[in-house]
Amino acid sequence: MKAKFIIVAIIIIVFSFGECATKENFDFKVTVVPESISSVIPLNDMNTAAGIIIKRLNKSFGIPQKSMKLDVTANQISLTISKADTSKIASIKEIITGYARLEFWETYENSEIMGYLSKANNLLREMKTVADIKNVNTQDKFIAQNPLLGILKPRITAKGEPLPSCMIGLASEKDTAIVNRYMNMPEIKALLPRELKLVWSQKPYKYDPSKTLYGLHAIKVTTQDRKAPLDGSAIISAKTITESTNSGVKIDLIMDSEGARTWARITRENVNRCIAIVLNGYVRSYPRVMAEISGGNTEITGDFTLEEANDLVNILKSGQLPFELKIVEEQIIKGE
Known about the structure:
Layout: H1 2-20, E1 26-34, H2 43-61, E2 68-73, E3 76-81, H3 89-97, E4 102-107, H4 110-127, H5 130-134, H6 138-145, E5 153-154, E6 167-172, H7 176-183, H8 186-189, E7 196-200, E8 213-220, E9 230-231, E10 235-242, E11 249-255, H9 257-269, E12 275-279, E13 282-285, E14 297-304, H10 306-317, E15 325-334
Antiparallel strand pairs: 1-3, 1-15, 2-3, 4-8, 4-9, 4-12, 5-6, 6-8, 7-8, 10-11, 11-14, 12-13
Helix pairs in contact: 2-3
């Protein structure tokens, strides 16, 4: 009996000490700078970026503003999070630097660009010497005679008619750099419309069984500054929508009043044409407009996974960063 009493007493003492032990706190300190600095960035823009970071951390992790200390100087943001959850450091870093440049672009139809591609292909052929073509094997001779259209498969029907879309061709991932080099040659650019901007899809073409082909899209530049007429800065609310059918994950967006007016105009002027949804420089989807969309509410798709959609929503809800950021220093410091 006495032995049992001693064991029970020891257990009580152990639990008592466990309850009295102080849980260690850690602060996370990070220094963030613009990804590329070509000139001194205005302090107002740095403060805007810092404010967006605070909103993101609050919305994504519930970190209260009083637990975050900011020190903003020219071209640098120092942030300290007190009592940080060290298991979430990797996710916190991703949210801080996450750059979702969402843009809405008007487009050309495939039929409007096909002729220019043929001219570019012919000029590239002329620029090759006869020896260049004769010295290649039979398998590569077609590409030698069709330098562009041999690797950028045109979007045409069996009868050779252009398919309705803003996608003008498909190329394997290894050939995208060659296509870019061709299309950026001064001689080729001189053949193309000045308003034409070529942008690749971010993911492989969904109907390609090999999943190795990427679509090239014909964007139409319609602004004097050559920027997208509408971007993520107009988004004031975003949420993920999961469908019970196989239609996948969608993102529901609500725009501010100016964005809503711009979106209404764009959709009104582009009925039966595609609008390209571009994320970080790559096309995610290119829906065809069926009617004007007023009110500033719209849905976007892009073969998002649920995780990708949620990450994008969290970033969009907090505002679009004015420039890309990178972390140059980080510390985990034992708190008091």
